[in-house]
């Protein structure tokens, strides 16, 4: 394995570690996120080290800067996940007017449940939507052959559903009822 591959694998490993502990299980390493999901970077590094996973501030800064999805936000000496939490946080995102259509990437095996129940946040606080089909396609492809659903966001917004957009451009809403979904013809 060459050094570039090793560095890339290390970056992915640190990113996954950060996601796990900033989104889902901060308590596993003794961290407490504030109400908006922030934690002091020095506390995060110390907690990770104490639990056998060492990384430097330079590695953390590289992960934050190199992440194409901008999964993390840094504010001075603090860091948080941009969205996707299963722990209770208030990201403080103001309501936003969505574009007419947003998109959700999924896989064929999920369609039966989605047709019955719409899009639900599952173990997260919100349903995640993309502003374009290409991004939704990439999201769906992480779990198999992707299926992209269109969401009539304009109708949802008109009818009182609230949307937020995270710093990295992910659209968030509590749920998407079936009536606002447009399924591809071949599924």
Helix-and-strand structural type: alpha+beta
Query: In the CATH scheme, what's the topology name of the largest domain?
Result: ADP-ribosylation fold
- What's the main sheet like? 3 strands, antiparallel
- Return residue spans where pLDDT drops below 50 for at least 5 consecutive residues: none
Number of helices: 6
Provide the CATH top-level class of the largest domain. Answer: Alpha Beta
Task: Choose one word for the global shape.
Answer: globular
Strand content: 15-25%
Helical coverage, percent range = 25-40%
Family: Belongs to the KptA/TPT1 family.
EC number: 2.7.1.-
Keywords: NAD, Transferase
InterPro entries: Ptrans_KptA/Tpt1, RNA_2'-PTrans_C, RNA_2'-PTrans_KptA, RNA_2'-PTrans_N
What are the salient characteristics of this protein?
Arc Repressor Mutant, subunit A; 187 residues; RNA_2'-PTrans_KptA; alpha+beta; Ptrans_KptA/Tpt1; ADP-ribosylation fold; 2 domains
List the topology elements.
Blueprint lengths: L2 H22 L14 E2 H10 L6 H10 L5 E4 L2 E4 L19 E7 L3 H7 L9 E3 L3 H9 L4 E7 H6 L5 E2 L5 E3 L7 E2 L5
Antiparallel strand pairs: 1-3, 2-3, 4-6, 5-8, 6-9, 7-8
Can you walk through the features of this model?
With 187 residues, the chain is α+β, with helices and mostly antiparallel strands. It folds into 2 domains: 3-81, Arc Repressor Mutant, subunit A; 101-182, ADP-ribosylation fold. The protein is built from 6 helices and 9 strands. It has helices at residues 3-24, 41-50, 57-66, 111-117, 133-141, 153-158; strands at residues 39-40, 72-75, 78-81, 101-107, 127-129, 146-152, 164-165, 171-173, 181-182. The strands form 3 sheets. Strands 1-3-2 form a 3-stranded antiparallel β-sheet. Strands 4-6-9 form a 3-stranded antiparallel β-sheet. Strand 7 (164-165) and strand 8 form a beta hairpin. Helix 1 (3-24) packs across helix 3. The protein is globular, with a radius of gyration of 18 Å. The model has no long low-confidence stretch (mean pLDDT 92).
